[in-house]
Structures are given as C-alpha cells and as structure tokens.
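Hi support team,

I'm filing this because I wasn't sure whether my run with threonylcarbamoyladenylate finished correctly. The job status page said complete, but I'd like someone to confirm that the output block is well-formed before I use it downstream. Pasting the exact inputs I used:
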Amino acid sequence: MIYPATDITIQQAAEALKQGSVVAFPTETVYGLGANAFDTLAVASIFAIKERPYFDPLIVHVNSLSMVSMVAATIPPVAMQCMEKFWPGPLTIVLPKKDDIPDIVTAGLATVAIRMPLHPVALRLIELADVPVAAPSANPFGYLSPTTAQHVAMQLGTKVAMILDGGKCAVGVESTIIKIENDEVSVLRYGGIPVEEIEKATGLAATSHTTKIEAPGQLPYHYAPQTKIVLVGDIMSVPDDATCGLLLFKKRHIPHTHIHIMCLSDDGDMRQAAGNLFSCLHTLDALKLKVIYAEQVEEVGLGRAIMDRLKKAQARFM
Ligand code: TXA
Ligand code: MG
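And here is everything the job wrote out:
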C-alpha cells in the first residue's frame, strides 16, 4: 500500500526495517526496495519479491560517513574525495567490504556498493532505522525502474506492504556506479552523475569496464518495458501509425498526427530528459503499442545514462 511520507509513516517504515520487513522508499534517482543490510532473511525477501537472481548484488544506502565504516573495510583517498564532492547524490562507490555484510548482499563478491541518496525521506528512514539499508530499484528484475510510488504499486503491487510516497524522483535515472582501485576509477554503470564531473573532481581519467560483467546494469539488455523499443536518429523515418509510440528528446512540431507522442524535455535539457525517461516509458508501455520509437540523444554527460537505458531496452527485443 502507498503511504504519503510523513514523520509518522517514515517512523513506521523504519520500525518495519528493524523488524526484518521490506519497505519501498523514494530516492532522488528511482524508488528503492529496502531491507536492513545486516539481516540476511530480510535481504532474501528483496530477491524473492523482485524475482532477482542471486548473482546480482545490491547497493547499500547510508546516511552518514560513519555508517560507511560499518560497511566498507577501507576507504581510499579518491573514494573519500568523491564522497565529499558528490554525496548525498546519485553516485555509488564500490569498495572492499566488511565481513559483517552478508554474502547475499554482495553476491559473494569481496566488494560492496555504497551510496548516500539525496532525498530527505530516504535519509530520515536510514537515520531512524539506524542501519545501512540494502536496496535495489523497486521493480521486477529487468523491467523499467520506478520513478513514482504508483509505478512501484503497479509493478510490485501486493508484494510490498509499505510504499513510502515521496513524489516523483528528481534525477529519474539510477546512480552512476564507479569502482576505485589503486587510484583508478572505472565506471560500472552510467547514471545520474556525469562521468565527466567525476573525472574533473578526481583529476583521473575514468575507464569503462567492458571486459567482465560486474553489474547487471552492464548486461546487454535490462531496464526494459514490455513493448518493443526501436532507437531512431531521423524522426521523419517513423511511420505515423496509431499503434506506435514516439519518444521525442525535445518538444517540437512534427507532421505526425496519429502516433502517440511523448517528449522527454521541453527544450532539449538533459536533466529534464533524464528525469522524465522512465515515467514516459511507463506511460507509453501502458498503452500496449506495437513499437515505441525513441529518438537518440547525444552521448555526453547525462545523455550517456539515457542512451544506455534506451539501448538496453532495445536489446531485449533483438
Ligand atoms: O540509483 C540507484 O542506484 C538505485 C536507488 C534505489 O539507489 N538503485 C539501483 O539498484 O539502481 P539496482 O540493484 O537496480 O542496481 C544496482 C547495481 C546492480 O547492477 C549491481 O550489480 C551493482 O549495482 N552492484 C552492486 N554491488 C556491486 C559490487 N560489489 N560490484 C559491482 N557492482 C555491484
Ligand atoms: Mg535496477
């Protein structure tokens, strides 16, 4: 059930987390499905609810740097630099894990992914629960991520007793995931913090991990709606057909009158576009169309995160 986030409902959700239940909550990126990261059974129910394979590790959410030391064995200086610069915010950092973190959280890896979300409800929830909160996005594995409480209710419905409603997620795409080893930054997933900003803050060139899949965000398909997605460069090549949808990057007049059109942004603003990406896809998906054509965006800054999600949605049908 959906509960508007208030002092009282956040307190109830924190109690539920302490007692081993799973709670859905808002973050600035997408809604998360959280459990006490130290509670193996509670974390196991996240996997069951999402039908998520156990090889896919979870992100642990914290509300303070002291909580990071409950989770991470070491914090290299470059990681500390990134935490100070980008936290709270949509950046996840993969660090060597403490033994206390159960293997189910990290899929048996020696590392753990950590982030501090930029959302008052998430931060207050973690504070009141007083434990690090393991939380993947609150959607069935492989499907579109939720950016509203209603998306969570639609996709996971009765499987989650409590969904805290904190409104629409401002960033709208998941966090950027980086791994820091020996003063080297590698990007495991493009997301809410542009890689260019991380490079600027650290003075290091970020490499992208292409050799080995460490995050399912790196799988060739993921984040997919039920409807077939086709990426297009030239909008004029798209048929004007009422059984199709068109996701425009930028609002503008086009001659099509039958196709279902949605726009990611009014004037080509990448932040607005990222913020609307999943909600537009949810809306178009619900129309049960034959195809959704999606306009390509330039792969710089947040455009990389947008194109990554669209390409992975398209790959599901290839
Ligand atoms: O914005 C976000 O990151 C959202 C909100 C809820 O915080 N969470 C999210 O979680 O997107 P999820 O589970 O949908 O994606 C987490 C990704 C997965 O692809 C997982 O494989 C990767 O993080 N991951 C987790 N632990 C890892 C580790 N130790 N090494 C490499 N990748 C890891
Ligand atoms: Mg996810």
